[in-house]
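<instruction>
Derive structure tokens from the sequence
<data>
Labelled lines for chain and fold:
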Amino acid sequence: MNRIRKAGLGWRSTGNCVDKHRPTCTSLHTVRLGTLLKTIELKRMSGCRLIVTGGTETGHAVGTYSHGNGWKIDLAPSRCLDRYITRKLEPSGKRGDGSQLYVSPEQDLFARESDHWDILFR
């Protein structure tokens, strides 16, 4: 969390906690360094204020490239972030749940869920 704060990223949790084992928390315990660094790079490139709303806490779908394994992060939507993603990244169809997908040149995958961006940083 210190690295998040130093990078100027915001953080929000519905439970106001960071416990990885509680789904109402927002935890970055065991997040991959690459995921964290790419989130910081997204902030720099977009010029947007980013707010982390989901990380490695329980309650997300499982799998190799999952939140629990540190590959994914959730960010709060904002006019700035929405505009950056939809204008700078390539649309890539829809996910099985109907979320619009966008892909970066590095093959990072951005899914616009109902209340956040679900991002897989490869």
Observations:
- The beta strands are 10-11, 51-54, 72-75, 90-94, 100-103, 109-112, 117-120.
- Residues 99 and 114 are 8 Å apart (CA to CA).
